[in-house]
From TrEMBL, chain B:
This is ABC transporter permease. CDD domains: TM_PBP2 (cd06261). Keywords: Cell membrane, Membrane, Transmembrane, Transmembrane helix, Transport. It is a multi-pass membrane protein. Pfam families: BPD_transp_1. It comes from the Bacteria. Its main location: membrane. Residues 81-295 form the ABC transmembrane type-1 domain.
Amino acid sequence: MADLTARTPPPTARRRSPTAGARSAAARRRSPNAPPRSFLWARRIFLTALTGFVLLPVYVMLSSSLKPLSDVSGAFHWLPSELTVRPYLDIWRTVPLVRYFTNSLIVAGSATVCSVVIAVFAAYAVSRYRFRGKRLFTVTVLSTQMFPGILFLLPLFLIYVNIGNATGLALYGSRGGLILTYLTFSLPFSIWMLAGYFASVPRELDEAAYVDGCGALGALFRIVVPAALPGIVAVAVYAFMTAWGEVLFASVMTNDTTRTLSIGLQGYSTQNDVYWNQVMAASLVVSVPVVAGFLLLQRYLVAGLTAGAVK
Amino acid sequence: MRRLPVRLRRAGLPYLLLLPALLLELLVHLVPMVIGVAMSFKELTHLFLGNWGAAPWKALGNYRISVDVHAPVGAALLHSFWVTCVFSVLAVGLCWLLGTAAAVFLQEDFRGRGLLRAVFLTPYALPVYAAVITWAFMFQRDNGLVNHVLHDQLHLTDGRPFWLLGDNSFYALLAVAVWKTWPFAFLVVMAALQNIPKDLYEAAALDGAGRLRQLRRITLPALRPVNQVLVLVLFLWTFNDFNTPYVLFGKAAPKAADLLSVHIYQASFATWNFGTGSAMSVLLLLFLLVVTAGYLLATSRGRKHADG
């Protein structure tokens, strides 16, 4: 984890020439707003403490995942008594991690694709047209984001059980049912964020496409979607991340064969023992894909999140 | 479609584009909400789970049970409500404070700024359960880092306190929630800071204003509109959070850290009493609606006032 963050190139890092230090010192003397010494110290202390707080669990995750079981069962120690990669081999056997991985991948992936595809059309309508009921629609979409998940969980659970009893259709416990419940949170924010991205694509581009003989859908797919592609990818990553980390619906709507990672990781604790080194190794393994995606796309995500939050 | 007059086609197009979204919104939001409200008026126990239409009508009975603070169910709900309120206010305050401070300190360029930014966003990117499980390990009484540091290394505590049981659990939950949520505040404030013109700071510096004065006179006023939205979003998130307490404590949270989402979940699934659970959910929603409406009214009035 820590390793991964270190390797990601900092987005605002500047290349420094050997004379950069001298130059910035000169610039500092000229600038009327050069930071005073007290500010620099306050910044140093605060940022160091915050980095420690942020990275503490990451360090625990990484170091504990390389410890033998005897190390993590006794009192905590900062360093492993011996380095071992055994936990990384054992995690696949202690619980059916591959199956949980597959389930999470299918559920989070499908929920992402569904919500992004449907949201592209809806966001285009919201960002380009005036129509009756537009305000009602946007307010509804926005407000469902503030509703607690528990509000939807109970009725959806009941609906699934009743549909199952009436038609024999096994929605409850199935991946399809879980995907549908994930749309309760991924669809609203996809619509919301995509509408923000689409609004930033100049309308003149659509109009040019119309002049060239495109219809509305042509303009959407030839002009708006390509222009907003980084935004669409960022929304997809965000939707995937949220679904990948979801616990509430997964804890009720899954069974032994459809269990996702969020619930499956509990399998490393037995009646007598918790295999903490394996828990940490598995946590690290399931984190790497989403953290990598997030850090690669964080810039686009920031733009979308703030567009949604500020406007 | 082709034969319709152009004007009608144009008018219908936005609705056509919205159709899939509308259908799904109906399916995952509106229908469940209607059913949820209907459930709250019924005596819905495990006996009627498979055929909920046959459950006996209970009128406002579930609501009466939920708000009767002299009976166990209502008293527990009220307690959970207060815990959630205090918890949310503290968590939002701390998240805002950390996020703003970090964003302000990273406003000017210096070596390592980009790296720090990526580091600070890590808690936000980690899957909730993986991160919270790690915290649960750190808070273990005998083999956790927290007690090792506090007791073995700094000798600050008598013996090894429990962190995931009893009164301490509130602080453990708060630490984890703040750790997980503050990067969002950081993200939003950082983006907002980029829109403040640099000349404002230069001009203020020429007039002899130090950093603190610049913060008070330029940065914080410029952040006001963003902060209003940010605080509301943070509040709703922490107030509704289920993942953090559930992964940290398991199915039943300790009394001191019994947030509403887990409380309602437990009240519904432990006793299979869905009617009461639904009534509690509806009450929670009503409360959130009132708070949000009041907050939006208050902040928009403040804005009008400020604009003159």
